[in-house]
Amino acid sequence: MSANIWEVFLKALFVLCLATMMNVSIITHSDMSFKTAIEGSKAPQEVLDSMVLLNVEYYNFENQLCKGQIVVNKVLQQDVEDAFKLIKKIKFPIEKVIPIVKYNWSDDASMEDNNTSAFNYRFVANTTRLSNHSWGRAIDFNPFQNPAIYKGGSISPKNAKYNTNTRGTLGGDHEIVKFFKSRGWNWGGDWKSLKDYQHFDKN
Fold first, then answer.
1. Listed residue (62, 61, 54) closest to 30, CA to CA
2. pLDDT at site 85
3. How far apart are CA 190 and CA 176, in angstroms?
4. pLDDT of residue 6
5. What is the mean pLDDT of residues 168-190?
6. 113: part of which helix (H) or strand (E)?
7. Are 147 and 198 in contact (CB under 8 A)?
8. Per-residue pLDDT tens digits for 100-119
C-alpha cells in the first residue's frame, strides 16, 4: 500500500471512529413517535391536535449528555426549546425527560422515577379540576429534587427532600426560574397554598 493510500485510509478510519464516538456519547432516554407519545391519553382530539413532541438534550447527574422527549402545547414550543438550550448550556442536571405515556399516564409513577414531563390529561392532585398539564401548558422538573410540599407537611413524591444546595434543585434566584418568569410562566415555588418547586405553567 502506497503512502498516499495509507494516509487516506487512516484519515477515513479516524473519521469513522470519531463519528462512532459521537453517536454513542449521547444517552437516549426516549425516541418515540408522536403517535406513541400520546397513545392511550384520555384527552379530546382537539387537545391532542394542539400538542407537539420535542426532542431535547440535557446533562444527567453523572454529567453525561442525554436525549429525551417532551410533549407540550404548540404555542409554547419556542419557550420550551429555549429553556432546554439554557439547561444544556449551564449543565443543569436532569434525571430524564420521557413522555408520561411510558408510565401509563400516572403522574405518581413518573414522579417516583424522577422524570421531567409536561403533557398529561389529568386532574390536579386531590381535586376534580383539570391540571394545566392537560393542555400541555405545564412542566415538572426533577420531582425528587423539587417536590410539592403541602401545608400539612406532606410531600410529593414521598421521601423527596428540598434543598437548594443540592444539584438539580430550583430556587427563586435560579437562572432557570428567572428565564421562565421572563417568558410569562408561573413557578409553583411562589404559590401560597403549597410549594410545588418542580412546576412551571403558562396560561
1. 54
2. 98
3. 14
4. 61
5. 98
6. none
7. yes
8. 999 999 999 999 999 999 99
Distance CA 196, CA 65 (A): 27
CA atoms within 13 A on the CB side of 109: 10
**Cell for 42?**
384520555
Q: How confident is the model at residue 126 (pLDDT cuts 50, 70, 90)?
A: confident
Res. 71 pLDDT band, cuts 50 70 90: very high
CB 108 within 8 A of CB 157: yes
Q: How far apart are CA 160 and CA 140, in angstroms?
A: 14
**pLDDT band with cut points at 50, 70 and 90 for residue 19:** very low
Three-class secondary structure of residue 199 per DSSP: strand
Closest CA to 145 of 104, 92, 184: 92
Beta carbons within 10 angstroms of residue 113's beta carbon: 17
pLDDT of residue 42 exceeding 60: yes
| DSSP code of residue 123 | B
Q: How far is 123 from 112, CA to CA, in rounded Å?
A: 18
Question: Minimal CA–CA distance to 58: which of 21, 97, 30?
Answer: 97
Q: Which three cell numbers stand for residue 77?
A: 414550543
**Whole-Å CA distances, 57 to 7, 49, 91, 98:** 36, 24, 10, 12
Q: Parallel, antiparallel, or unpaired for β 115-116 and 96-97? A: parallel
